[in-house]
Every structure is written in C-alpha cells, then in structure tokens.
C-alpha cells in the first residue's frame, strides 16, 4: 500500500487528478472505476478543468461506477447516476453509452446484479477510485461483507444512512437499500486509488493503517492488492 499524505483537500484532489489524467493520456480507451460522494468532487472538478484547458479526451474511455441506491431512477437528483452526469460526465466528452451503473429501478434485483457482474467482466478496470466510509466501508460494502463478494444488494448501515442524509431533505428520504460492486470485484481492478479526507475519516484510516485484513473493516481488503495508493489529507491522517 502506497500512502501519500497531503496538506489539505486541494492537494489531495490535485494528486488524485494527476494519476487519472496521466492514465487517460497514456491509454485513451482506459476503463475507469468511479465513485460518488463528497470525496471525489475536487478530483472531478480538476478533470473537467483539465479537459477544457488541455483537451484530455474521454471519447474512448469507459466508466464503471461502484454503487446505486435501490428505488431511485437515474433521473432522480439524489441518484448516483445523476451525480455522475452533473459532476463529471456532462462536462467532458465521454460517450454516455460507455458509462455504466447499476439500475436502481430494475424490476428483477438479482438479475440486475448478474447483469452488472457481466459488465465488470467485459470491461476490466485499469483503475478503481474509492472513497472511505466513516465505518470503513468501500463502495456500499458495509462491515461484515464477505471478501469474496460480487455485485449484491445491501441494507445500508445506520451510520451510512446518517452520513448520507446531508444530501437529502430529510433522513427519512435516504434509501435503505443499494446495489454495490462487491469486494472481490473491486480487487479485480489493476490499480486502486483510495481517497480519504476530513476528521470523520480519521478513525477508519487509523484502523486501516494499524490493522490486518478483516471483514469487519471492508477497506482492509486493500492490503491484499498489489497496486493500491491511498491519498489522505492532514485531518484524515490525524490519528496515525
Ligand atoms: C460512493 C461510495 C461510498 C463513498 C463513501 C465516502 O460511490 O461508494 O463508499 O465513497 O461513503 O463518502 P463521502 O465521499 O461522501 O465521504
């Protein structure tokens, strides 16, 4: 695990953007595993600025997302599909047909998991971007998730519902169920880039750095990945 400590969120976002931009320039048809949430927003802004100023092209890139709330249509403003368009895809030249995310309103949920695993198999990811949950989750793989999991349906932990409530009008609107890429699927990416910023991630980061791989801390599976980079800001690294 390669750990990069940065001063602040800006520097974290800058370092992360350098990694993604370099990859896309070297491999114009790269497959990017992407994440939603607050953490990658600074990174996505930089990808957009770089695309506009330096012309880095995403025409041949494919983007595969981690997770989606069950029950939210892709047009719903809190869906992760909407988040990706609003914060990234609408501002770069990616072909939306080359972007993939679980369908939150699929009628057959089990079939949807299988469909998504098929997509992951067809498009091996060159890099998988991850944020870190305050409880140590990655994607929506909550503590206790099996290390050999593939795409599955999860009931979100109370702490995750609380963490994510800030983005909804009321906590009662936060969906309780979601699709998530599994831990085994995450590990299949050639490279992993985990970002964590802010004090509320400090405990999870400390457990991750001082512990051993355990299903109680889903992110700890990343110890077993041969090319994993973790970028922290000072606050997230404050308990190390
Ligand atoms: C998002 C995702 C989640 C978040 C994590 C951190 O697609 O899979 O695991 O990365 O909950 O969320 P933020 O970045 O909002 O602190």
Would you tell me the overall average pLDDT? 97
The poorly predicted ranges are none
Secondary-structure element string:
EHEHEEHEHEEHEHEHE
Please state the CA-atom Rg, rounded to the nearest Å: 17 Å
Number-wise, the strands total: 10
Give a written overview of the molecule.
This protein has 240 residues and is α/β, with parallel strands linked by helices. It contains seven helices and ten strands. The chain has helices spanning 9-26, 41-54, 80-87, 109-122, 158-164, 183-187, 202-210; strands spanning 2-5, 31-34, 62-65, 67-69, 99-100, 127-131, 152-155, 177-180, 192-196, 228-232. Strands 1-10-9-6-2-3-5 form a seven-stranded parallel β-sheet, with helices on both faces. It has a three-stranded antiparallel β-sheet with strand order 4-8-7, with helices on one face. Strand 9, helix 7 (202-210) and strand 10 (228-232) form a beta-alpha-beta unit. The longest helix is centred in the first third of the chain and has 18 residues, at 9-26. It is globular and about 40 Å long. The structure holds fructose -6-phosphate. The site of fructose -6-phosphate has 14 residues, from loops. Fructose -6-phosphate (F6R) binds at residues 35-39, 66-67, 131-133, 137-140.
């Amino acid at each position: 695990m390669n750990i990069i400590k940065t001063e602040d969120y800006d520097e974290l976002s800058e370092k992360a953007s350098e990694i993604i931009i370099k990859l896309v320039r070297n491999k114009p048809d790269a497959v990017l595993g992407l994440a939603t949430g607050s953490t990658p927003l600074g990174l996505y802004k930089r990808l957009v600025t770089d695309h506009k100023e330096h012309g880095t092209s995403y025409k041949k890139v494919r983007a595969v997302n981690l997770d989606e709330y069950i029950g939210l249509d892709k047009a719903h403003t809190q869906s992760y599909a909407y988040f990706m368009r609003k914060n990234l895809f609408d501002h770069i030249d990616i072909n939306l047909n080359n972007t993939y995310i679980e369908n939150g309103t699929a009628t057959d949920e089990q079939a949807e998991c299988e469909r998504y695993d098929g997509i992951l198999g067809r498009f091996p990811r060159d890099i998988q971007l991850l944020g870190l949950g305050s409880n140590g989750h990655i994607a929506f793989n909550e503590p206790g998730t099996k290390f050999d999991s593939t795409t599955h349906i999860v009931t979100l932990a109370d702490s995750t519902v609380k963490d994510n409530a800030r983005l909804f009008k009321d906590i009662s609107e936060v969906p309780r169920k979601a699709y998530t890429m599994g831990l085994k699927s995450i590990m299949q990416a050639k490279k992993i880039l985990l970002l964590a910023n802010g004090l509320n991630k400090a405990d999870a980061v400390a457990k991750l750095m001082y512990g051993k791989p355990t299903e109680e801390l889903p992110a700890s599976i990343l110890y077993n990945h041969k090319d994993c980079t973790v970028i922290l800001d000072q606050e997230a690294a404050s308990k190390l």
